[in-house]
Write a sequence for this structure.
């Protein structure tokens, strides 16, 4: 249930960083949906209350805020490009490491499909 302090959030990518991000959202009361190509990485988060999406499209549809944290920008595009129309009206937060040029290109791509976009970098281990 969404309220002013607990916006639903989706986390795509459940490596060490993605799991830490999803865990922080859960700990702070945000309804959290998670998705990863290897579904087994979601088990511990599901036990803590996360909803596990069966598809990335389902994950995007679940929340107005979508955080993606994967290996690189090529993987970001591999996952999201086929679903470009699904991101309209969402806030996409990309915490995948890359170059400033890749960040600008991703921002243009996302805003071109009607999403708000924030690009950031995680500079420490979870």
């Amino acid at each position: 249930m969404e309220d002013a302090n607990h916006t639903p959030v989706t986390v795509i990518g459940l490596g060490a960083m993605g799991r830490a991000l999803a865990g922080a959202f859960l700990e702070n009361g945000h309804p959290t949906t998670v998705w990863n190509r290897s579904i087994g990485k979601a088990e511990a988060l599901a036990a803590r209350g996360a909803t596990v999406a069966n598809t990335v499209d389902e994950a995007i549809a679940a929340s107005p805020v979508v955080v993606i944290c994967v290996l690189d920008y090529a993987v970001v595009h591999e996952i999201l490009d086929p679903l470009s129309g699904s991101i309209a009206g969402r806030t996409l937060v990309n915490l995948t490491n890359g170059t400033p040029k890749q960040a600008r290109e991703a921002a243009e791509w996302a805003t071109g499909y009607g999403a708000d976009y924030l690009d950031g970098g995680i500079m420490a281990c979870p």
Q: What stands out?
A: The longest helix spans residues 100-112. Residues 11 and 21 are 8 Å apart (CA to CA). The radius of gyration is 13 Å.
